[in-house]
Input
Amino acid sequence: MNKLLGSGGAALALALVGCGGSDNTGFPPGDGGSTGGAFSFGGTGAGTTGGGGGLAGAGGSSAGGGQAGAGGGLPTCQGWCDLPYPVPGHVCECHAGCQSQGSCCPDYESVCTPSTGGTGGGTGGIGGIGGIGGTGGTGAGGTGGTGGAISCAGHCGSSQPVPGSAPNCFCDSQCAQYNDCCADYLGVCGGGTGGAGGTGGVGGTGGVGGTGGVGGTGGTGGTGGVGGTGGATSVGLDIRADSNRDGVVDVSGNSDDSVEDVWNSQYGAVFLPNIDDDENKCPKGSSVTDAQLAACHDGNNSTIDGASDLLDIARLRLLAWPAAPSNATAKIDILPSGAINRVRLFKNVGGNWTAIASGATISNAELKSGLELGIEGRDVLRDSSWNGHLDVQVSMVTGGTGTDRVKMRMSPVALSHHVQPSTHTYVTPSNSSGSIAFRQDLAAACSGTPSAYTELPALGDQWTQDYFETGYVAMPKAGGQQHVIKVYFRSANFGGSNQLRSAGRVVYTYFRGPDRGGITQYDPNHPNSADTLNSFGNTETIPPFGNYPMGRILRGSTSSFYPDQSFEAMLTAQGIQPQVFVNTSWLAVAHVDETISFVRANSPRGWVMLVNDATLAKTMLEQAQAQGHGNVTMFTGKFWSNNTSATVTINQVLANTTVMSESAAAQTQVANQIAIIKGATGLTDAEIVKIPFLHNKSGGYSVAYQPGTVNGTYVANNVFAPPDPHGPVINGQDIFKQQMQQALSPYGITVKFVEDWDLYHRLLGEVHCGSNSDRQVTTKWWETGL
Output
């Protein structure tokens, strides 16, 4: 909102005070006092400045000569000079600081810092404008100097200035907004019956004659005095953004203007980090280096790359100020200074969008005609050196003083969570029989759901979950929608020789394009001993709850075994999904998806957590043994990676001391993970679904002995696709399949098992490790107020 007054020269005269009668022009009614509230500021130099006649209140009379009337409705500094608080009943002030803040009451200069008139042939001030009286006001017309009266008669509603007016005055519905109404606008085009005009002062050398006031009942309007050189003008700086988040910048009314200074769950303008590639200009060939892949995107150049790129630019509008003084110019700045190099401003010049720097000049012609602007983020938030908040400010440079500014925030990146409906389920193909079996079952699981089964290019890396992660940035769009750029993070995981895992290039070579961007962030010196934690099976998102409407990121980490700290800092910098860390150092692969997952539930929280329960698996086998099924086999017809047979009886499993010991240890470790998540979320035992499978030892660490059925992919609200457990079949049913189906049935979830033994399980992974998902954006992150 613009809260400022200009000072284009040596003198200023204010009129158009509200009247005591009905008023439909936007000015407040007066109090019905006896004298109209006009103010005249004397100029320095020889000659006398003519004061304007005030507006009479109802039943009062108007006198010229610049007296402040009690009934005019405007605030006065009389009796309030130098006090540190606003004038009672008003928002303006009368202390020295008000001039730099643009918050002075209109008569501050004349009452608290009066000018001293000189003698001799200097330059006079502007002639005063005769006031408009209230209904029933009477009074004698003032005696004016030279200069003709300008009237709105015959010009009401016209968008053109009244012929002969200088400076131009108008009689349309917008003149009050721009402070350039002709003097009799209220009386002729909708005001009350006029009171007496004020007495025009004797003008000095040069200048334009003021306008005579409208006569009241029985009175005659006085003729304005001869004006001086260079009068002052109310500043019309008004910059706006989509602060009310309806997807458009409102240029009429104040729906955006009234909330431009706030950021909360309801109001505050948003812009995007423009990291997509709308015209597919970025190179993708094998000869392109990792650094070149990561550096190319639309926010890294100073041009608008076509109509699609223009949709990624958040708009601002500097409203037209037709009455701007002829010597007025302004500038536009990004505040604070730390944000300047993080964003780019554009201005629309005849349909061509041109990049401009912070501090760029706004010309006099642009002030008068108005200006459309745009802003983009050059990159996502990478660390805590900037929080994404900024102000775009316009300030007068010449022809006046004052500023206007609007608050904005760049969209942080939100990671997707399981409860968001899946739109695509991704898998990396290969020619092996294990891959074919896996892909056939996963495609069948997706069939009939909104999730499109999608095969990525053959990359020689079957661990589709691990080398990229999905998220998004967004800003409001018209119609209550949101404009989204999907974001694909490349894993900070190394593939060898301290080089990034090559499959991660798919972020740029396959995904990046219109409304899709890629991000790489890593420290080449991160500890290789913990590099497995940088695979994205170790980056999951707890769905929304309580005070975390965007959920919380879940990762495995300890004080001595932790993911890449540069990537960690980037996740933290987003500020909307604080991280929760659990200990995964006891697991051979050390990923959180090995023991924990989430699915939708019809409950106040909206979801439940699936957790590995090795004790339940042991109990189920013991019960089967007690029922006489100890010789029933598990893993029938399967082989371990060293080609030894995996087929084993229930009796043999329960007698395997390594499996039993490691399963008991895993139960303790998972309980510790659950305790941390319960403490962070308030999750109750009733919101935890136990998923049974045992553990074994491998290289001194824990691995899933049975296929880890918690490690599945949630392909639809009603479909969960875990690995086939290959458990003992008793009475025609696999007891572990049956348990999982019964456990998820109360939530309306169908379980569709996927064959993953050869390609994933015996290589220490499962279905979730071999797949990935894009998900619908179901939350407007800005409504969280974060």
Observations:
- Residues 657-681 form the longest helix (25 residues).
- The mean pLDDT is 82.
- The chain has 14 helices and 38 strands.
- The two ends are 23 Å apart (CA to CA).
